[in-house]
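Dear colleague,

Thank you for sharing your sequence with our group. We've completed the structure prediction you requested, and as agreed, I am returning the results in plain text so they can be pasted directly into your records. Please verify that the sequence below matches your submission; if there's any discrepancy, let me know and we will rerun it promptly.
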Amino acid sequence: MEKRNFIPIALTFLVITGLIIAGNASAFSIDIKPDKERATAGEIVNFHITITGENISGINDLVLNISGPEARNCQFNTDGTPLADCDGIEIKKLGQSEKFGYGYSENQFIKYKISLETKNFDSGEYNIELTANSDSGSSSKTTGITLRDKKKK
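Please find the predicted structure tokens below.
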């Protein structure tokens, strides 16, 4: 009789331990899509960003990190206001889901359009990473674009 009770108790213990260890590993996810993956230096490249999750209101700030032949960082708050130097980068908040209860609900979202002016960028491959920071951690997503030299006449 004692052996039969041991298996369900052991399984319950393992599940609870796994949940405690996992914690709130990924509070939100990020989707970042450029309007074009290849552009000519001098063009504006727009990035459409959607952040989804259960506690979007817990995001403190966002950081756009551009790496490649040229490097730039742009830190901004959730309403799109730059918190650091964001020359050549325009951030527009497109919308946000309504909050329910204490700020927690399923399927919360924030949408942004980030426009990158590429006239001061060298040609080459660039990684564009967006990181959303909260008190419980951070989530990131990376995409890439290629900038070509302007055509000479």
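Summary note from our side: Residues 2-22 form the longest helix (21 residues).

Kind regards,
the structure core
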